[in-house]
Amino acid sequence: MIERSDEGLGAAGSDAEGLNAAGLGVEGLDASGLDASGLGAGRLDASGLGAGGLGAGRLDAGGLNAEELSTEGLDCRWVDGVLWLTLDRPRVRNAMTITMRRGLIAAMRAADSDAATRLVVLTGTDPAFSAGIDLKEALGNGAGSPRGARTDPAAVVRAARTPVLGVINGLCYTGALELALSCSFLIASEHASFADTHAAIGLPPGWGMSALLPRAVGVRLARQMMLTGERIDAARALAVGLVNEVVPHDRLLDRAWELADLIRRTHPDAVVATLELLADGEGTSLAHALALEARAKLRWRSDVVDVARRFAARTNRK
Predict the structure, then answer these.
(1) Which of 34, 164, 262, 268 could join 127 via S-S bond, C-beta 3.0 to 4.6 A?
(2) Closest CA to 83 of 279, 263, 227, 208
(3) Could you tell me if 240 and 36 are in contact, meaning their C-beta atoms sit under 8 angstroms apart?
(4) What is d(CA 165, CA 163) in angstroms, rounded to the nearest whole number?
């Protein structure tokens, strides 16, 4: 299970094979120079993220049985109120199969139904976050799309009442970018890169790219990314507002835990109310967004003792 450690996460077996059609990758949009060599099993000192060899960790009372949520290509771990979802097919840059996408949907629904789960963290096994869907499977290897080919986990992530932190550890392309854009917010490794190759391979976006990307980076850059397939690196992603932070690769897990700790200390109902206000107010007029907040304030019932306790705790930490 994922555990806190100054050493980082152990990596699953991985190598530096290039991506074929199984991840919406196209020539010129591969691993952005990431070196997967040396990502052997067991512990990593300063290399990156992975689902294998993550140590025993511990399951808090009342937490999800994450082992039941894990499926082929998707590793699920529940630690200290945080559900960690790791896309885990490193040989094909974590290209998402139908089974993996269905697993993501099931895991998100389970998190939303479990009061002890305060945060979902979504990441990938090094060297990639994900190259998108498994295109070979989605096209039925030339025999037509199989049942479930249109399974869309991004919509479920956007609708979640539980916050979702996207931890982008490497390349994040096409369907994976749509999935990342659906998270509550994103932090990224210096190794991260982002691209949309839908148009490059002759497909329209289907998980929200045309709506989400312009809202994140502006319509002009969104046009450029979607029409050319060019990637942007982590520094550019930070500059244009696609990600909230860029941290050294070996610090990515530690920073994710720091953010998780802060979220776990918050009032769970206040978090849900805040996410709902942000979602309902996005894209509306200022007047309408202010009216939504005013109505939510009138409906809220505060526990003054709890508020005072939380304020004192936060003040003492400072």
Answers:
(1) 34
(2) 263
(3) no
(4) 7
DSSP track, 3-28:
---TT-PPPPS---PPP-GGGT--TT
Tokens 């070996």, located at residue? 250
Residue recorded with tokens 């869907």: 133
User: 92: exposed, middle or buried (C-beta count within 10 Å: 0-12, 13-18, 19+)?
Assistant: buried
> Are residues 217 and 181 in contact, defined by beta-carbon separation less than 8 angstroms?
no
Q: Give CA–CA dist 139/98, Å, rounded.
A: 11
Q: Please give the structure tokens belonging to residue 291.
A: 């009216």
Concatenated DSSP letters of 240-273: HTSSSEEE-GGGHHHHHHHHHHHHHTS-HHHHHH
Q: How far apart are alpha carbons 143 and 141 in whole angstroms? A: 6
Model pTM?
Answer: 0.79
Least confident of 34-38, 254-258, 266-270: 34-38
Tokens coding 13: 């077996």
Three-state DSSP class for residue 129: strand
Per the DSSP assignment, residues forming a β-bridge with 228 are: none
Nearest CA to 262 out of 252, 251, 271 is that of 271
Tokens of 129: 């976050």
Q: How many CB atoms lie within 10 A of CB 241?
A: 12
